[in-house]
Amino acid sequence: MNFNFELILFYLVVISGVIAVFDLIFLAKKRKEKNITKLPILIDYAWSFFPILLIVFLLRSFLFEPFRIPSGSLEPSLLIGDFILVNKYEYGVRLPILHKKMFDVGSPQRGDIFVFRWPPNPSVLFIKRVIGLPGDHVSYVNKILKINGKVIPQEYDKTTTDYDEMGNSIEVVQKNEDLLGIKHNIYQIPARLGMDFNDIVVPPGMYFAMGDNRDNSADSRFFGFVPDENIVGKAVATWMSWDSINHTIRWNRIGKLVNPKE
User: Fold this and answer.
1) What is the per-residue pLDDT for 165?
2) Helices (H), the chain
3) Which regions of the chain are under pLDDT 70?
4) What positions carry a catalytic annotation?
């Protein structure tokens, strides 16, 4: 079951705010006249939590939102258990809840790792890498990516072992990919067939997204393009990382930038 934390937080802000305002207008004066200093427990909680909830809601809606990496689709760039900050204003300021863009600040760039609402079910958040921009011609055949007819170079790095969410080991090949100037690592599983497609044109206002774990990622190859209105924000940095297999904190990943400048 997926909980809409944003909506729950909004309701909590509204409820606590209404109680606090009602108390200020109608009840506080009566308590003062009767020399009552102790607040009813519900009103006390409302006054205590309303400012905190409001600040969290505003920060989360317009500045930064935390996000946990639930799967290995972006490995080796992002690992299962990484907790990242998402910049909410990099791609435009949007109204909370309605997600309507108010101010157009910028747009996703090729190579960015961004968070978006999954097109088949917008209540679910996904995180992938931007591969195709509006108007781009994208092909993926025999694990080779092409953008606008240009082959994206992949250089062999090493063969290593990856682990899925259940801790099962998978042999993968790590390669260095140069995504038209954005250099990063990818995983490929030699024994697994990829989903090939040839010369897909990205429509206006849409983006083609893929995971760096190319043979273990549910991305635009399966659910289609990502509309601009579904974009949540740009991944910024890892603020915590938990290794659920070894039950330890990955200290070396804390503070690591997600989208370093090339």
Assistant:
1) 72
2) 5-22, 28-33, 41-62, 220-223
3) 1-2, 261-262
4) 73, 128
